[in-house]
Specification:
Elements: E1 5-10, H1 24-41, H2 46-51, E2 54-65, E3 74-82, E4 88-97, E5 102-114, E6 119-120, H3 124-131
Antiparallel strand pairs: 1-3, 2-5, 3-4, 4-5, 5-6
InterPro entries: 4-hydroxybenzoyl-CoA_TE, HotDog_dom_sf
GO molecular function, one term: fatty acyl-CoA hydrolase activity
Enzyme class: hydrolase
Length: 142
């Protein structure tokens, strides 16, 4: 099994809360950043996706905290995709300290929205696969 896609981010001073750890909203932003970096690395142009009338949407987001992240820490955020047969798919993110310790998990249930009909497309995996030059980064067979 190959390792999931990962990006490294540094916690900036303006992202910390009064307890001096990463504010909860930034976990979602970091997960979004990792997911879009993964999509780009897979060769998908979000501009082209939107231009074709499709937009990625999150239907549910869950954050599980394990160890705090503090200002100046560096964190690796993975992006691992899980596909089924329906209109939705899952994207899992692990936040790891530089020592490998798990800081947090962020999981999304997502879909692709047809921007004209405002409905989820029936086979989002097919839509991502047809646009990707490296679909394996999205957990899809080439």
């Amino acid at each position: 099994m190959t390792e999931p896609f990962s990006v490294r981010l540094e916690i900036r001073s303006y992202e910390i809360d009064p307890q001096l750890h990463l504010n909860g909203g930034f976990y979602i932003q970091y997960a979004d950043h990792a997911r879009f970096a993964c999509v780009r690395a897979a060769g998908v142009s979000i501009e082209d996706l939107l231009g074709s009338g499709l937009g990625p949407v999150n239907l549910e987001t869950v954050i599980k905290y394990h160890r705090e992240l503090r200002g100046g820490d560096e964190v690796d955020v993975t992006c691992d995709w899980e596909w089924g047969d329906g209109k939705a798919y899952r994207v899992h993110h692990l936040f790891r300290h530089q020592d490998g310790g798990l800081a947090a998990e962020v999981s999304h249930v997502s879909g692709l929205l047809d921007l004209k009909t405002r409905r989820l497309v029936p086979d989002p995996g097919r839509e991502w696969r047809t646009r990707a030059t490296r679909p394996e980064l999205l957990g899809l067979a080439p």
